[in-house]
Amino acid sequence: MARTTKAEILRQVKAARAREARERRDGRRATAAHYDVRTGRVMLELSSGFLFGFPAGAIPALARATPDELAAVQLSPGGGALHWEGLDADLSIPGLLLASVERPERLRELARLAGRTRSPAKAAAARANGAKGGRPRKAVRG
């Protein structure tokens, strides 16, 4: 297997930093986290300024944890995940946000995001369809 070049590593680091900045700007990173004993919720402050809380008992890995164990929540350095050392549990912030909405809404949002994806192949297909008169019409079933 070929070794990764230094130039490729630097390109990957630059791309990862840009992705992290985009995630932070879009509010998919946490800036603070704590366990609220009174409500039984893990509370997050997102980089967008929104507050998000979820019942600890709704997450199987946390369901049987004690309040002291839940209070030991740690935020990953980039703010993309929560970690409980004593429980050996890790939860991603984007995963928690997606899990908070019903499945049909989740699928719609994922499809919307996928439709915004840009690639050379997608651009070429759009140009080819445009040259043929646009997107083909759906067949009507009789």
Descriptive overview:
The chain is an alpha+beta fold and 142 residues long. It folds into two domains: 7-100, NE0471 N-terminal domain-like; 101-133, no CATH class. 40% of the residues lie in helices and 20% in strands. The protein contains five helices and six strands, in the order H-E-E-E-H-E-E-E-H-H-H. A hairpin with a 5-residue loop joins strand 4 and strand 5. The mean pLDDT is 87.
SSE layout and pairings?
Blueprint: H1 6-25, E1 30-36, E2 41-46, E3 51-55, H2 67-71, E4 74-75, E5 81-84, E6 89-92, H3 93-99, H4 103-115, H5 120-131
Antiparallel strand pairs: 1-2, 2-3, 4-5, 5-6
User: How many angstroms separate the termini?
Assistant: 55 Å
The pLDDT mean sits at 87
CATH superfamily name of the largest domain? Uncharacterised protein PF10387, DUF2442
SS element count, helices: 5
Low-confidence stretches: none
Question: What is the CATH-assigned architecture of the largest domain?
Answer: 2-Layer Sandwich
Radius of gyration: 21 Å
Strand content: 15-25%
Broad CATH class of the largest domain: Alpha Beta
Secondary structure: helix percent: 40-55%
Shape: extended
CATH topology call of the largest domain:
NE0471 N-terminal domain-like
- Main sheet makeup: 3 strands, antiparallel
Order of SSEs = HEEEHEEEHHH
Give the number of domains.
2
Instruction: Name the strands of the widest sheet in spatial order.
Output: 1-2-3
Q: Could you tell me the number of beta strands?
A: 6
